[in-house]
Each structure stands twice: as structure tokens, then as C-alpha cells.
Amino acid sequence: MEIKFSDLELQEVDKIKAKYPTEQAALMGVLWLAQKKFGWFSNEVIAYVAELLNLPPSHVEGVVRFYTMYYKKPMGKYHIQVCTNVSCMLRGGENIWLHLQDKLAIGNMERTEDGMFSLEEVECMGACGGAPMIAINEDYYENMTIEKVDKLIDSLN
Asked: Which residue among 18, 20, 108, 144 is buried most deeply as judged by most CB within 10 Å?
């Protein structure tokens, strides 16, 4: 796969850069766009983003490594995040976490052999009133049960 944005994506990069006083300040927005396009941050993707923003690759890599929302390895087509923090844990989040590990036969930050699913245990996604919650890619699901999770996961296959 060639590491390059399309013309339309480059226009989006320009829009992101226009919102900030420096190219460095636009880094997180451009990183998010890059992750959507390339799926994760290989050394080549880091170098490409660095070149686009006139930044040292080491600076871009430092930001990628600092923030957990940026993937450092290939993840599944469906990245499942399960909150196991206090509110979610008390309402069954930990049981959902353990169930998904068994169901998918993977652990934290691993992906299934077919590349369909990856799994991540997270601390808090800010939906304590709707606990327990999971996220699949950018979609959030509250008041989950093991049965609801199974139905949702099975619908994605």
C-alpha cells in the first residue's frame, strides 16, 4: 500500500492546518486523519505525516507513542473498546471484557487471525450513567449486557 493521501485528503489536511497558528499544532488532527486512512502508525506513516507538517519524525513518533488513541500496530476492522472502570465494572463491564476475550480468543491490544476484530480494555469513556459501555470503532453503546454484546458482534460478521 502506498503511503499517500488523496487530493481530497490533502485538502482536509490543509483545512486542519488552517485552524492553527503553526503546523505543529495541527499534528493531532492530521494524525487522526492518517490513522483513519492507514489504520495504524508504521515508521513510513510517521515519516509521511512529519513531511506533511515539516516536523521531525521523532516529534511525530513521540506524540503517537504518548497517546493511546493512536495505534502502534495493525488493529482489527472492528476495534472493540470495553470500559472496565468503576461504574462500568460495578455494572458488569469486567464480565463483558472477560467474555469478549474468550469469545474472540484474543487479549488486550490483540486482533483476531482473520483481522476482523481487535480488543482493548479502557479506563473510562465518560458514559458512567450508561454503564457498562463499549465502543466499536467510533460508535458507542451503553447499558450493555453480554447478550447485547454477542448480538452486536455477531451482526458484524
From this structure: 144
Q: What is the pLDDT along the chain (157 residues), one digit of tens a residue?
A: 789 999 999 999 999 999 999 999 999 999 999 999 999 999 999 999 999 999 999 999 999 999 888 999 999 999 999 999 999 999 999 999 999 999 999 999 999 999 999 999 998 888 899 999 999 998 999 999 999 999 999 999 7
Q: pTM of whole model > 0.90?
A: no
Nearest alpha-carbon partner for 72 in 48, 49, 104, 45 = 45
Cβ atoms 45, 34 nearer than 8 A: yes
Domain ranges of the chain: 7-66, 78-156
